[in-house]
Design a protein that fits this description.
alpha+beta; 3-stranded mixed beta sheet; 3 strands; about 15% strand; GMP Synthetase, Chain A, domain 3; 4 helices
Length: about 130
Amino acid sequence: MRKRNPRLDRTVAEAIAGLLEHEFNDPRLVMVSVTEAQVSQDAKEAIVFWSVPDRDLLSEDPRATGRGDVLPTPPQVADALESARPRLQKLLADRVKLRNTPVLRFEQDPVRQAADRVEELLRELRSGDA
């Protein structure tokens, strides 16, 4: 999918993030971050990349006070986003005026997944050295 306009990508990503934060009460969408949107050249499709904090890292954070056990898993977030997709598209059409409202597709951010994997490997190395 070729990018049409980086500014449009940012606008769509920011709009989706705002909608998720303010318009949805689904507990599976707690702490979901929209990391990027890629809108097709004709603006008929948009891939929205998302991530959630690593549950293990949050539970190690003393400020988290047990929130790590209530965070949704990535598959739960994916299901929630898919079920919210029709309403998100309608709200996006109201918020961002475009000739075409893009059909949304949600994908977990691959960069975040790779970073989480590196963190996991580093934790394993540290625990093996102890």
